[in-house]
Amino acid sequence: MPRSAYDQTGGLVYFPRMCEKIRLHDKGQLPEAYHDFVGKGFDGRMCAYLRVNYEDVKAQVLSGKSDEEVLAWCLEKGRGLNDIDYLVWNGFARKRGWRDEDGGSDFLAKAKADHGFNDKAELLTMFDFYEYDEGRRS
């Protein structure tokens, strides 16, 4: 299973999860249910926010670099981030699925229903969904 989306590298949530998914996928250990979202969803949004290409990030991860080294590469090759940028990304990512106007809330509602979590009123975001779906919360 990938790491929690709440985990951080260099102050950014989700980044270590993306790196872990890349490593697991490369080793054939990423569960099949995740394959359709590799490089898309949060992975794609993270890369777009950093203004780097997912395939380039993947190459950096698979070259053996640590998450911290990969993030440093992203900040050098893409765009640097200031304190507000970290606040914006982390706030967006942690709340994804809660009151989204672009289909995110509908996606979360379907995922909850498909996985039998409709009774979990405290499950409000995609990060929460990952925690339940991957067994870190019950």
Describe the protein's architecture and organization.
This protein is mainly alpha-helical and 138 residues long. It has two domains: 1-82, no CATH class; 91-138, no CATH class. 54% of the residues lie in helices and 3% in strands. It contains seven helices and two strands, in the order E-E-H-H-H-H-H-H-H. It has a two-stranded antiparallel sheet with strand order 1-2. Helix 1 (15-26) crosses helix 3.
Furnish the topology, listing elements before pairings.
Elements: E1 8-9, E2 12-13, H1 15-26, H2 41-50, H3 54-62, H4 67-77, H5 83-95, H6 104-114, H7 126-133
Antiparallel strand pairs: 1-2
**What would the average pLDDT be, to the nearest integer?**
96
Number of strands: 2
Largest sheet: 2 strands, antiparallel
Helical element count?
A: 7
Write the H/E string, N to C. Answer: EEHHHHHHH
Radius of gyration: 15 Å
State the domain count: 2
SS-derived structural category: mainly alpha
Helix content: 40-55%
Per the principal axes of the C-alpha atoms, what is the gross shape?
Answer: globular
Distance, first to last CA? 16 Å
Q: What's the short story on this structure?
A:
With 138 residues, this protein is mainly alpha-helical.
Key features of this structure:
138 residues, globular, two-stranded antiparallel sheet, 7 helices
